[in-house]
Every structure is written in structure tokens, then in C-alpha cells.
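Entry details:
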Amino acid sequence: MSLADRAESLLAGLAVGEVAPRRIGKLVAYDGQMLEATGLAMPVGGSVRVIDADGHATRAEVVGFRGDRSLLMALDGDAPHANGGRVEPDAKGGVAEVGEALLGRVVDATGRPLDGLGPIGETHSWPLAGKPANPLDRARVTECFDMGVRAINGLLTAGVGQRIAICAGSGVGKSVLMGQMIQGAEADVIVVGLIGERSREVADFLATKLTPGVRERAVVVAVPADHPPVLRIRAAMRATAIAEYFREQGKRVLLLIDSLTRCAHAQRELGLSLGEPPTMKGYPPSALSMIPRLIERAGADAHSGGSITALYTVLADGDDGDDPIVDTARAIVDGHIILSRSLSEQGVFPAIDVGRSLSRVMADIVDEEHGRAAAVLRRLWSVYEENRDLILMGAYKAGSDPLIDMAVARHQEILDFLKQRPKDRIDMVHSSAELIERFGI
């Protein structure tokens, strides 16, 4: 038998099929943050592996292109990149692993487990950026969502499928309030995205907020502040993708992203590295446009019957309520909770500023008696805040205005209604009944 015949017989059993060649790129530039590669025609958002000088592969994401060069952002820490290094496509970059096996687990932005409990079990694939949605597929918010916090249930009643922003400066109690909601919320699945927080806070959150009764139905995606900006953005997208999967299964999902501001900061780093022009407070257009894209993925689904009730914490830099991120988030969500530093300094927790906070769906989901009692409390709060300086200076004379007199007399009662210890849970029925009993007409 000739050599050609022997080769043909050996290859006869191999089924190659329709396999196209894989394009391999070459690393040509690296400035400490952004990598540039040639010969790699991949779309923005695609994932690649960069073979370093020591032979190990590090991950990167395509974030843009300049001519025939692809611009990459590294997903790993410092690596010994070398000129001419091999750049390979990675097909797993655009999808998130989702499924029941994630319940009770803690993963990073790439889906790798962080809890030391071994590999994740059987999972399914879900687009990291979500599936295109028809706005008419979103169901109306018509049902109350019990948060277990009296002030929110009574005055800022949340609905199933609502998106809420919790806005405050640093150290006012955003994370504590989120922990109360996790403990008290009536949800089938809880998905938590801890984005850009301190590593210590991640460990503390898992130990104190996810108690044994809650941990089994929760999924945590954690990326501390020292990770690259692309990973922080991916973490928020992965947490939302996991919530979308459970919503499609007909589950009632509570999604918590802490914090949305850290995601915007990550996009700001990325946008400025790509040469985008800075606008308000240095935020490029892509940082502001990312917020509605992320928030609009939450909500109730009319077809599956599932829902994502989403809470996003927003850090108001310097307690500035007109911060671009605060303003953009407040404009797109269905309600916002403003936390007051002055109330927290008085020992009132949760430090909710009733006058500046609002639930846009409350009128549609509470009965008339509940709505009237909430309006009375809000009116008394507003009158007291408008005349606070006169009252505290002693310039207001009692008896001049009956409404102001009532606001002064009942101010402490209002503060007592707002106060709630972190471990207490007050359900919707008791919250509404107490509000009506105290402030009903």
C-alpha cells in the first residue's frame, strides 16, 4: 500500500464537518490599562485570551477598535504581556451561566465560585446583555411587594416588578436598609450584586444579611473595588441576567445592585480610556446611557408571570441630590428612596426623607384608606420641614396655624413610625393597619 493510500485510510474515519479557521491575533501595544491587537476581527463585547510571556492565558474583553486594531481591556490583574503575544478568541465571554444550581452560591463577574463549595452544578446559558424585549411584554405593576420595612410598606409601598433607587451619601445606611429588605421581602429568589464595594463589606454582607433561611434562595455576584472596571460592569450584567432567567421560569425575583454608582464609575474609566469626551463631573455619554439599559431589563413579564423587583443603591457624592448619576437613575426608575444624613445623625433608622422620597406605583396598588393616611403623614412632614427653622429658633408662635401646630405636636410620632430596628420585620398588613390607626382620617 502506498503512503497516500495509507494516509487516506487513516483519515477516512475522521468527521471534520464544516469547521472554519479560527483567526488568531497578535498583541502590538499595551499602555498599562488598554491592550491593542491586530488580526482579530471580533465585535465589541467579545472575549479573548491573551497568552502572556510566561505561557499563561489571561482574559480580556474587546471594548472598541481603532482602524484594524482591536482595543482590549484586561479582566485579570497585572500580567507579563509581551509584544507579539498570541490573542485567541474565547467563545464563553458573551453568556452567563444560570440555573437552580446557583442558589446559595457566591460567584464573581466571570461566574467562578468564590465560596469554596466546589464547582457549580448543571447550568444553562443566558445572554450577558439580556434578550431583546418588547415593551408591550412588560406587565403593569398592580400587586404590593412586601418589603418587611414599615416605613416603606406604609409610605412608599413597592409593587411586584417595580424598580427603586435608594439614594444617599456615604455612611447613611443604604446597605443596612438593603439588608432589612432581604430579610423581610417575600420573594422566591434573591439575586444580589455587590459591585465595587470593599472586600470586608462583601464578607460582612454574607455573614450578617444572608441568614440561613435566606441564603438557600439567594445568588450573590461579588466584585470588590480593586477589580478592573470591565469586571465591575460585567458583574452587574451577570446579576441581572441571572434574575432574568428566574423571571422566565415564573419566579418572583428580588434583584439588589449595590451600587449603581460604582457601575457608572467603571464605565467612566472605560469610556475615558477609549477617548470619549467627558461631560458633567467627568462622566462620558456611555456612563449615563448604561444606567437605563441596565434598569430597563428589570420588571414584570406578562407572558411567564414572573417578575424582577429591583433595588439599586445610588451614592450621592457629597450628599448632592443633583449628581448626574442620581438624576439619571431617578428619572428612569419607578420610585426613589432618599436617605437623610440629618435623620441618621438623630439616630432615626432607616433615615428615610419622606418628603423627597416617592413610589410612582403606590396609588395603583394600595386601597383608598391607606392612601389617605399616607397623604396625611406626608403633609405633616412637609409642613414641619418648611417651617423647621422658625420652629427651632422659637420664632413660631403656637396657635398661629393649626396645621403647623399639628405638625409640631405629631413630629415625634412620625419619627417613631419611621424607626425600625435592623432585625425587626413588619409586614404589609401590620404596616398599613398602624398607619391608618395613627394618621387615618
